[in-house]
Amino acid sequence: MSELSDLTLPTFSEIWQSTLNWCPTEPQQVRFQDLLTQLCALNTHVNLTRITSQEAFWEKHLWDSLWGIQPWLQAEPTELRCIDIGTGGGFPGIPVAIALPRSHVTLLDSTRKKITCLESLCQTLPLPNAAPVCDRAEALARRKGDRAAYDLAFIRAVGSVFSCAEYTLPFLKVGGTAVIYRGQWSVEEEQILEQVLPQLGAKLSDLRSTTTPLTQAQRHCLYLQKVEVTTVNFPKKVGLPTQDSLGITSNK
Ligand code: SAM
Question: What is the Cα–Cα distance from 147 to 39, expressed in whole angstroms?
Fold first, then answer.
């Protein structure tokens, strides 16, 4: 994408409105444009995220990130504390921080060079309500001040749904919500997830599906509500959260 000469981000106001019943304000659109421009510049040094066109960036990174948090978009409650686990190039966390300016978003990733880029990005945008943190989810979730401290935890494209549940839930306060972004989703995965959630102190509160507005790709979003304190057994030590740690035998 950095080799493309025109980096003008489309507005697609009608699509925002018709699909999410929300539309970025003018300052938010400027932030999204700056995000695209700066990510393309950073991508020439570090492979932060794949961006093939302005439209693909809009759909896969902006629209997709915000579709998952649609329930919070229209009426942002006061000061949500959020964490994006395995944020990579900042998705979904950065679009969420732009769309929910009163909330605070921790951008967590275990890759140092990605976090260094995000630190520079958050300074230059600027994005004062986002804080990049370099650590593994398994380690940060055991730290006082981060464990059971968040209202919302998002995770996109980081391993199996079971690992996603195990990574997100320990960060949440009781009553908080984990938002797990998936492409495909199967009945078998849902059945197994329902079996393991009680171990993690959570229940499946919603499952939404849609197709993306430009390329009609399949999307699913799972919403897990934390109903009890997660036991100290979770998450497993670094490298271990897997289906096995939750006693799952399926290969999905
Ligand atoms: N969420 C972004 C997105 O959807 O564009 C990036 C997804 S990328 C495929 C997965 C990212 O998760 C990588 O940047 C990787 O470093 C990070 N990651 C994987 N396991 C992690 C862990 N246990 N703790 C923190 N970050 C992790």
Answer: 30
* Cβ-proximal residues to 155 (8 Å cutoff; 6+ apart), any chain: 84, 85, 86, 164, 167, 168, 178, 179, 180, 181
pTM of whole model > 0.85? yes
Q: Give residue-wise pLDDT tens across range 96-139.
A: 999 999 999 999 999 999 999 999 999 999 999 999 999 999 99
How many Å apart are CA 97 and CA 122, to the nearest integer?
10
* Ligand 1, CB within 6 Å, residue ranges: 49, 86-89, 91, 108-111, 114, 136-138, 156-158
Query: Which residues face 82 on adjacent strands?
Result: 105, 152
Distance 109 CA to ligand 1 centre (A): 6
Q: Pick from 57, 66, 94, 110 the residue to mutate for probing ligand 1's pocket: most ligand atoms within 8 Å of its CB.
A: 110
Q: Give dist(CA 146, CA 67) in Å, integer.
A: 25
Span from the CA of 110 to the centroid of ligand 1 (angstroms): 7
Note whether 1 and 53 are within 8 A (CB): yes
